[in-house]
Write a structure and sequence with these properties.
Elements: E1 2-9, H1 13-22, E2 26-39, H2 45-48, E3 51-57, E4 60-66, E5 77-84, H3 87-96, E6 100-114, E7 117-124, E8 128-137, H4 143-156, H5 169-185
Antiparallel strand pairs: 1-5, 1-8, 2-3, 2-6, 3-4, 4-5, 6-7, 7-8
Length: 186
């Protein structure tokens, strides 16, 4: 599957939620997610722009691999995931293979659906509030059309293309941690 995603910061989440609903989106639930990201002993996923994570939400766990971003304007990437039946055993498998946790991202996510769009309003611990709009496709050909359709949709919400960000929450958390460490050393 290819996950086509555009993300932007949100100043007023309540106002954004009203705007999303006014455009016809249906609320589909609220989730608390905890994502633990891992790195490999044989290559740095930060350098290869990949991600390996375990997500825990509502008592369910999934292992997800995300490939490198496919363009310079969105967070479009290959995504493969599978449900984990035994979280402790999965952690033991990863650590036995040399994988190690690098960061945890915790967020509260309000989800909406309108047409092909899956919309999330995220409140991310230590980072703030964001909107993510995504479409999932099986065929990566012509995915640029879908990216453009997301940009047209977010423009209706008052979000400019220039205000979108390609960094993942993991990248932002690691940047935050690096800035804190730098200021402590200085």
């Amino acid at each position: 599957m290819i996950e086509i995603e555009v993300k932007a910061p949100v100043e007023d989440p309540k106002l954004m939620e009203r705007s999303i609903i006014e455009l016809g989106a249906t609320p589909i639930g609220i989730e608390a997610q905890t994502d633990t990201y891992y790195n490999a002993p044989y290559r740095d996923f930060g350098k290869t722009d990949e991600a390996l994570r375990i997500r825990v939400e509502d008592g369910k766990s999934t292992l997800t691999y995300k490939g490198p971003k496919m363009d310079m304007v969105s967070k479009t990437r290959k995504e493969v995931q599978t449900e984990i039946k035994d979280l402790d055993s999965m952690g033991n498998i990863l650590s036995s293979l040399g994988f190690f946790p690098v960061a945890t991202v915790s967020k509260k996510r309000k989800n909406f659906r309108i047409g092909d769009f899956y919309i999330s309003l995220d409140e991310v611990r230590n980072l703030g509030n964001f909107i993510e709009v995504e479409i999932t496709v099986k065929d990566p050909r012509n995915y640029q059309e879908k990216v453009e359709s997301i940009f047209k949709f977010i423009a209706k919400l008052g979000i400019k293309r220039e205000s979108t960000i390609r960094k993942s929450y993991l990248e932002m958390i690691l940047d935050l941690d690096n800035n804190i460490c730098s200021s402590v050393v200085e």
